[in-house]
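User: I'm putting together a teaching handout on how multi-component assemblies are represented. Below are the sequence lines for each component of a complex, exactly as they appear in our records. Could you produce the 3D structure of the whole assembly as structure tokens, so the students can see both representations side by side? Please keep the chain order the same as the input.
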Amino acid sequence: MENLLDIRNLKISFDSERSRTDAVKGISFCVGEDEAVAVVGESGSGKSVTAMSLTRLLPPPPLCRVGGKIIYRGADVAEMSESELRKIRGREIAYIFQEPSTSLNPVFTVGYQIAEAVKLHFPENKNPRKTVVEALKEVGIRNAEARYDSYPHELSGGMQQRVMIAMALACRPRLLIADEPTTALDVTIQKQIIELLLQIRKSRRMSLLLITHNFGIISELCTRVIVMFRGKIVEHGPVDEVLHNPQNPYTKALIACIPRLGMREKKLEPIDYSKLGEV
Amino acid sequence: MIKYIIKRILEAIPVMFVIITAVFFMVRFVPGGPFDRERSASAETIAALNAYYGLDKPLFEQYLGFLKNLSRGELGPSYKYEGWTVNEILAEKAAVSLELGCAALVAAALMGVLLGLAAAAFGRSAWGAILSGLSLLGICLPSFVLGPLLILLLAIKFRCFNAVGWDSASDIVLPALTLALFYAAWIARLMRRAVSDELSRGYVRTARAKGLPPGKVYFVHIFKNAVQPVVSYLGPAAAGLLTGSFVVETIFQIPGLGRFFVSSALDNDYTMIMGCVILYAAFIIFFNLLADIALAALNPKVAKQL
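Assistant: Of course. Below is the structure of the complete assembly, with chains in the same order as your input.
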């Protein structure tokens, strides 16, 4: 089966006048049709820039250089023109970001912001408002018709993230990239958002690339997991296997950080990087 | 919104009252009187003049009389320009100053916003540096230098405009430009700063991630956020343009209010000073209100607080 997304030896570096930072140091993985893959790692492991690089959302060279190959449905993303890319962004590959409150423009209604994507990718759609209201209903926003004209600040954080998801879904993408979709939200809201993503995964044939630092949320959503540390993949495999039988010391340390009920006796251990060595 | 406008107008009444009272007593405490400069007048004549205009009465009684006239919209006779009431002078001159001020305000806003957008788009390139340098020059160049420079260049060398005067329609161009340039430069800097601040916001990433072309990201999403500090600045800028027109009116020989305002203070022309102060204060309050309403129209969060 042809993979939806194939990443081969991806390298990303940021150049400033004085220094050069290698954020991603040659990683390879793929995402299949209708597959959910998680990328797990701590802040600075390069997981978010990897997500951004997939549709070339990173700053252009010389600020940022991307090497290796990103193949989306057989086409090299690096060789696409800007207008070809814009047909992929939002339409084929959609994003949800970490901070819903800053990811929405404060001076436009949420309906306008979703409709903008619909009008852009489906100019033949005679009634974009209807499409938007349906998308809002699908992500569980009550009173969707009235919410169309709400401004982002009139909604709670959880509702804002639902709006972001509705924006991503409204154009029926093949791949949804969720970059820390629950990190900025309360625990109870986190659970609702995960359940929503799960339900969407069931109702649509859509691939998911979930980026998170939290091992706790991936087992429900994803089948495969990639563990990243300092720009490299340190472990890669089915979620159950990695969770229950981690091979890499960093993965073990990361899994030990998941808080569980009844672990009052044993304190959560911070990761001791000196013991990890060169992973 | 209408409730808010009414509230702001009601709030302006005590402000105006304090301004009127303070200025009324302040000008009276300045040594000298309105008729001191009449060289030929004897002491008896001045006393007769003072008695004629009621200036010999106790100060507080004069104040009450002034308020009583003001409540009917009467500002009283000018002490300097015989036979003219202050109302007549204001009506004739204020229109000129207002026309000049509004033209300068519109020019400043347009030039400033466009230059700021361009400077932000060029970023740190050579063009960006040139635009920043120009806007700094615009801020530093005083109008008494800029005005004559424009006259020299556009009126005398290239003969596009009349050097001075207020006769043909094109006569507004040079003074308005002179008046506007400082504010245009300031607005350009505000705009450039705001745009580069907005560029790193999350919603810009969202807009690009959904496939919007750069023009739409820039002129729809970023613009509506970045123009807000400029709109808030337009209120104070309007005040500055109206009250600051004295130098420009003098350079270009324009029969506006600025010259009357300054000469009335020098002449102790009490009623004229009061008339100018009241009019300017009303303009300033009005333009600030207008700027706040425009800001509320742009930003729903601000509108909610109204």
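A couple of points students might notice: Chain A touches chain B at residues 55, 57, 86-91, 94-95, 97, 99, 102-108, 113, 116-117, 120-121, 151, 153, 164, 167, 171 (CB under 8 Å). Residues 187-203 of chain A form the longest helix (17 residues).
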